[in-house]
Design brief:
- By secondary structure, the protein is mainly β.
- The protein has a single domain, classed as Beta Barrel (Lipocalin), CATH 2.40.128.300.
- It is built from two helices and ten strands.
- It has an eight-stranded antiparallel barrel.
- The protein is elongated and about 50 Å long.
- The protein starts with a helix and ends with a strand.
Length: 141
């Protein structure tokens, strides 16, 4: 059970990273650079249960994606896992590079865990659809 929950959550956690280089048709990357906090999953505020079997459950309690000017990113997600009444917390994180084309921000993790993308609304919000969940990240103005 713990292995299944952790694998599911790792995949979901990576959902949280971004990337940074612009192309001739894309936005100014200066507008994208910064730190984005995960604010909702499927419209619900954190913490959100992302997997549950009986009393055992996995929750995402926080997430942050940071896009740096040099085209690198950091993505971290905190998970709270309850199994057999025992609660543990772990942080899943990855780093890599990011690029942007139009409103699509693409991420390439250094650990080879799989590329992913998010949609930028042109202002302060990044949205990702991952394994049936819609994750919304917001940058402080």
């Amino acid at each position: 059970m713990a292995h299944l929950l952790r694998n599911t959550l790792r995949a979901g956690a990576i959902v949280v990273a971004l990337a940074a280089c612009s192309d001739s048709t894309g936005p100014d990357t200066d507008d994208l650079v910064g730190s984005y906090d995960l604010i909702t999953i499927d419209g619900a505020s954190l913490p959100v249960i992302v997997d549950q079997i009986g009393e055992d459950k996995a929750e995402i309690t926080m997430g942050t994606v940071t896009l740096d000017e040099d085209g690198t990113f950091g993505d971290a997600t905190e998970l709270r896992i309850t199994e057999g009444g025992v609660v543990t917390t772990e942080v899943q994180s990855t780093q890599g590079t990011w690029t942007v084309s139009g409103s699509i921000v693409s991420f390439v993790p250094n650990d080879g865990s799989g590329n992913y993308s998010m949609t930028w609304n042109g202002q302060l919000r990044l949205t990702q659809v991952f394994q049936g969940f819609t994750l919304v990240y917001e940058k402080e103005p």
